[in-house]
Input
Amino acid sequence: MTRRLTQATLDTLRPDIVRPRYDRTTLQTGIVHLGVGAFQRAHQAVMTDTVLAGGDRRWGITAASLRSPATRDALAPQDGLYTLEQRGVQNVLSVIGSITNILVAPESPTALIAALAHPHTHIASLTVTEKAYCRDPASDALDEAHADIRHDIANPHMPRTVFGYLAAAIARRRAEGLAPFTVLCCDNLPANGQTVHRLLTRFATLQNPGLGAYIADQVACPDTMVDRIIPATTDADRASISASLGLDDAWPVIAEPFSQWVIENRFTGPRPAWEQAGAMLVADVAPFETMKLRLLNGSHSALAYLGSLAGHETVADAMADPGIAAFLPRLMQATAPTLSMPAGTDLATYQANLLQRFRNPALRHRTLQIAMDGSQKLPQRLLAPMASLLTAGRPIACHALAVAAWMRHIATTTPQDPMAAELMRVVTEAGPEPEHLVPALLGVRAIFGTIGDHPVVRIGITTALRQLIILGPSEAVLRSGGEGW
Ligand code: CS2
Output
């Protein structure tokens, strides 16, 4: 039987496999991370590993899962170690050592609050996915009727949500005379730091107005733009990585070579020098974030819905479809004028690089993985640029087609989405005819706000959906854009 990857077996690895060259037993915990998924383990934890290797030992990570014990169960027997396989022209294996402890919040809420409230903790970082913020996607307001939010307002010491944990820990620190930590959101939300600051302040105000005022005033939530394509790890990945290591790794992560992190340089206390690992610390993240949400994530969602409708399992497969491959640059070119970038930003190169990243055949990024949670993603990825185009009097055909593809996805599958029940009810009541289905779905205000009231939007999406149904996705994309709506 192969031995497990652990601190004790690290030395048996082949010399070309990168591994922590620092003494992990001397690390302090400076970061408590909520949402220990593949994204954090292949992005922030990797950049933090570089900082630790540079000699600053204050930034060990206690990572918490808000739900499932699976990551803890896989990584606790490995002393928190796991492998990152970077897949590109060449594959590179690195063992990452920055996560020193993993908590499962529902098992030990008190331990998680204590870790967040510890004097050495300066950063509470988050990758919990869009839906965990319990917000109304169109208006960005806290969903105060959400069962978990109501639960947490009433039970400050036994929270379930990120806001419950953050508020409990900030209250504890305040009572103990400690400065608050910086809350660092690394999810793909629009203006993610400002959004979290607003939602957290609102949550805390409902719990205790004094705490709300304190958070509004004292807690920094810098904006960040995070970018790395990270497909879900499969059993086949686990087997092939374990075979390459010569040691069993129960939960490795896979990533593309590209990695970008742009962070607003506004922290309450000390922070790791993530710039040593290539992060950009800037005064204003907004242009980078909007660029990434609209060009990368907007294209990704279009690829996910068009690609899965056309029967393509992965993003790279969808990019090999001539119709979809021709559509993507058109969608990006239509989006680019909605961005206002700092002088010197080369958007054409950014778009060309995105197309190349999507074509990476080694990643096997499933279209259905990206298709999940569309209700939480559409507003910032496709509807916001569509609104800008309408204001500027420009055609919206490409964005209308992408939204129509989402509607077709909702109407023809059982979507994985926090709003699935409501969406499926709307689809059943409206029936499959685009003339009825499109206005019915556009009427879901939590997603579409008022954009569906615009006749150009209604007509554009209805025409696109009809073409998708009659011609199929690969043909429909070739026709889209000619009509000028
Ligand atoms: C993807 C993102 O699943 C999705 O919705 O669009 O996870 C995307 O891969 C990352 O944001 C890339 O940085």
Q: What stands out?
A: Residues 188, 227-229, 296-297, 300, 369-370, 377 surround D-mannonic acid (CB under 6 Å). The mean pLDDT is 96.
